[in-house]
Specification:
By secondary structure, the chain is an alpha/beta fold. The chain folds into 2 domains: 157 residues, Rossmann fold (3-Layer(aba) Sandwich); 175 residues, 3-Layer(aba) Sandwich (Rossmann fold). It has 14 helices and 12 strands. Helix 3 links the parallel strand 2 and strand 3. Helix 1 packs across helix 2. The longest helix has 14 residues. The radius of gyration is 20 Å and the shape is globular. Keywords: ATP-binding, Helicase, Hydrolase, Nucleotide-binding. Pfam families: Helicase_C (PF00271), ResIII (PF04851).
Length: 367
């Protein structure tokens, strides 16, 4: 199956197996859109060929389980085989006590979440199992590193290198001015949530207003007319209001959030893939693991202090597809002033080790 891996994926696989000679628990960093799930499946396949007999793949959310299962089965490992189990962390937390098998390898998808208590238990309960963490962004807003869970970090090429070699889409980037009304509204946000990011309630009060939403629509109309895209909203109410506004202007849009039933969500995403729906407005649903390569624009309408959140969101637009020349990134909340452009290099090793915070403080704010 090596022939179905791209050169950089093959290189990452070799480096991982070399690293496993010395360390049990390894984290792998690759930018969003570069095929982490395919690499994951190829690694699991090789692991089972060797000493391993049972692998657990743990996803951050239920929607990602089907996607991973599908990729794993394409690599010749079916669900019925029993050697590979893909599950969400929520399902595993509820059912772990009833599981009598012990895994030889636990793969954590979107492993920047691994510091949560629900994941830490896996280290306590299964100390003998190897652990592999996969993420685009090995950083946390609270500045904690990952060294108490993972022994080492393997990093891939930079976003700029992936774009240069044609594996990721090039992009155009527009943003609000430093002295604009929108930027002043965002600068007025003072409250923080439990995760250290802006408080959703305050963001919603400040940004979920008709004038702000009209400006969002004007930006899409001006910079992404006729294109398909994803909008990141502050709250469920904000997402629904944006979708209603865009649809009222003849731009077929739907809002998707955690309350949208799974079957309906799948139907809406399929409509988007087919082009029946032009815009998906969402609240954190498509920040991670959402594979839809023909996203032609991404609109950022949700302020954040999290570098991980920023890169996961813009990364949805950088996946290549046959008819896409480049992606339009519309930053209505001034995130580039905090984090730089998506192709900026980051010191992932420093963040992994906890020497640098994965947020706005990791770069001087430039006006």
């Amino acid at each position: 199956m090596n022939d179905c891996l791209r050169d950089y994926q093959q290189e990452m696989k070799l480096r991982l197996f070399e690293e496993w000679e010395f360390h049990r628990n390894v984290m792998v960093q690759m930018p969003t859109g570069t095929g982490k799930t395919h690499l994951l499946a190829a690694i699991v396949r090789e692991f089972l060929r060797g000493s391993g007999s049972r692998v657990w793949i743990v996803a951050h959310r239920r929607e990602l389980v089907d996607q991973i299962e599908e990729t794993v089965s394409r690599h010749g490992m079916s669900k019925e085989d029993g050697r590979v189990r893909v599950m969400s962390i929520q399902w595993l937390s509820r059912n772990r006590k009833d599981m009598y098998e012990e895994p030889d390898l636990i793969v954590i998808d979107e492993a920047h979440h691994a510091l949560a208590e629900t994941y830490r238990i896996l280290w306590e309960k299964y100390p003998e199992a190897r652990k592999l963490g996969m993420t685009a962004t090995p950083c946390r807003l609270n500045g904690k590193g990952f060294m108490d869970l993972f022994d080492s970090l393997i990093t891939s090429w930079t976003v700029a290198e992936f774009i240069g070699k044609g594996w990721l889409s090039s992009f155009d980037y527009v943003s609000i001015r430093a002295n604009s009304k929108e930027q002043r509204l965002i600068d007025s946000l003072k409250k923080r949530g439990a995760d250290g990011d802006y408080q959703v309630k305050e963001m919603n009060e400040v940004l979920n207003r008709e004038t702000s939403i009209s400006r969002l629509y004007e930006s899409v109309e001006r910079y992404a007319h006729g294109k398909k895209g994803i909008v990141y909203a502050v709250s469920i109410a904000h997402a629904r209001r944006i979708a209603a506004c865009y649809s009222a202007h003849g731009l077929e849009s739907v809002a998707i959030d955690s309350r949208t039933p799974a079957s309906e969500r799948k139907e809406l995403v399929d409509d988007f893939r087919r082009g029946k729906v032009k815009v998906l407005v969402n609240v954190d649903i498509f920040s991670e693991g959402f594979d839809c390569p023909d996203v032609e624009f991404v609109q950022l309408a949700r302020p954040t202090l999290s570098l991980a959140k920023y890169l996961q969101q813009v990364g949805r637009g950088l996946r290549r597809s046959a008819n896409k020349e480049s992606c339009m990134l519309i930053d209505n909340v001034g995130l580039y002033r905090i984090f730089g452009l998506p192709a900026r290099n980051h010191d992932w090793a420093a963040m992994f080790e906890g020497r640098m915070i994965g947020n706005a403080l990791s770069r001087a704010r430039t006006e």
